[in-house]
Amino acid sequence: MTRRSLRDNPKRELWLAWGATVFFYNLYAVVFFLFTHIQPPGQPWYSPDQASTWFTEHHHGLGIGLALIFVFGGLSATSIALITYSIRRMSVSRAFSYSYLIIYSVSAVPGFLFICVALTAGIMRPERSPQLQHWLYQLGFLSFSGTMGVFLIGSLIWMCAILLDGNRVFPKWFGYLNLCNALTEVVVSPSWIFKTGVFPWNGLIAWWIDVVIFGIYTGVFITLLRSMIIREDFGTGPLPAVPAWRFWQSPVETAP
Amino acid sequence: MTVAEVSTPPCRTRQVPGQPDMWFFVLFESLIFTSYFCVYLYYRAQHEAAYLAAQSQLTLWLGVVETIVLLTSSWSIARCVEQSRNGRYDVARRDAFLTAGFGVIFLILKVVEWVRQIHLGNTFSSGDFFQYYFFLTAIHLVHLLIGFVVVGVAIHQLSSPRRRSQELVETCATYWHTVDFLWVLIFALLYVVR
Amino acid sequence: MRRLNRRLLAVWAVLSAITVIYIWIDHSADHHGTAHASSAVTVIALLLAAVKVRIIMREFMEVRNAPILLCRLTDAWIAGMSAAMIGFYLAGRAVAT
């Protein structure tokens, strides 16, 4: 038995992409939740003066955190690429993978970049009128929470692909979990209407419960992508099952 | 044959109805809905008078009819599964179509009810109770619409000898029953709970 | 097969009857036509709903003939859901006073 180094490993690129995905989601969590306090979101009912004050109070956190996002945010592409790869490995038409790739690439603009740009613009010119600051504040948070339609369709595409797949790339229960995730995109849509209660962009139902489901979903798909890479045989047929103990295997493979 | 074999009737092997994966969905989705129900009940209990006043504008008998319609649709798809299990695929298909039919009746009743409430001046943003009313009934209706696709899959399976998969028909039925029991809970929460 | 059909019909009848009982509960909860808050009515309504859900699961969804693990799991789920809903309702009442 020879032990392959990472240099010769045919799955090298897949593992790099997976590692980048893990790094990106951790960075996103640390930046959005801890550095910048973008999540949980600011209050939707803030007046222009309160919104201005919010920018001032979060100035440094937003500045450093969003700078990191602008540098490393492109790594989100690895997550989309790996999922697209997984759909291509399935027995379904390639149209599914291309549709998913396009939709999720597009969705990164309103669902991720808009808020970064809007809030950075907000902190960079603090001398702006409170009305303009308020506009940037609302643009940022509304675009982040309210543009879930693209994510909804993307999740449904992945769900259909998984349920139709004959190559056992993902378990069927994960297909159904995509449906649960897709439905949370519907649940967040009342955030356009409400400023108080359980449905605004920081509401108990529209944000807190949704974030828990999204967190579970993300953790699950990152784990399942790892399982897929371990099982990948670069063929076109069903992926082999793998014993549970191999799940903890490092990227360095052993080959007969 | 031993005495034990003669005296005890053969029991059916215990099998998970449909794909176990669908049961994961059923249980997970129930958890999500339970979280919505808990939020509703928690805030309702703190503003009882306002919620009661708003709730009195709902028509209980309409809710009862809707519940019975959906229960009947569950009955018909349960029959469909049994007919399919016994090889009577044409009858099973008919039962599946019947299920979809009852689903359509529910959909019509729900839309009629919404229109009526909107005419009374009760919209999604006209107060706490109606926020929850429109939210819960709407998210349930989305599940019902998905249910039509699911029943369509079952009918598609039953229509051709090549495709027939009892597991898939049972899986589709499991989903439909979920739509039904979620409504049972929503009905109690919106129409009856004080 | 006919026995099962009769069983399914009986289940439907029981579920529909429990649904109709809600009308009686609704009327008896009101004093002279005006609605009153009542934790008793709420808890009974939720427990009846839980009973209906269990019947749907055991009979329509065939959990009755499923492996024991699924029977226990669905029972636990129903119990948990009911406890959570009643718990949050009572907690809300406690916070309000």
Describe the structure in your own words.
- The complex is a heterotrimer of chains A (256), B (194) and C (97).
- Chain A is elongated and about 60 Å long.
- Chain A has a two-stranded antiparallel ribbon.
- Chain A is mainly α.
- In chain A, helix 1 packs antiparallel against helix 9 and helix 3 runs antiparallel to helix 5.
- Chain A starts with a strand and ends with a strand.
- Chain A has helices at residues 12-35, 48-57, 59-72, 76-89, 94-124, 130-146, 149-164, 172-187, 204-231; strands spanning 2-3, 254-255.
- Residues 252-256 of chain A have low confidence and may be disordered.
- Chain B is mainly alpha-helical.
- Chain B has a domain at 64-194: Four Helix Bundle (Hemerythrin (Met), subunit A).
- Chain B has helices at 3-7, 20-44, 48-55, 60-85, 89-119, 128-159, 166-192.
- In chain B, helix 2 packs parallel to helix 7 (166-192).
- Residues 3-11 of chain B have low confidence and may be disordered.
- Chain C is mostly helical.
- Chain C is built from three helices and no strands.
- Chain C has helices spanning 2-29, 39-60, 68-96.
- In chain C, helix 1 packs antiparallel against helix 2 and helix 2 packs antiparallel against helix 3.
- The N and C termini of chain C lie far apart (56 Å).
- At the B-C interface, helix 2, helix 3, helix 4 and helix 7 of B face helix 1, helix 2 and helix 3 of C.
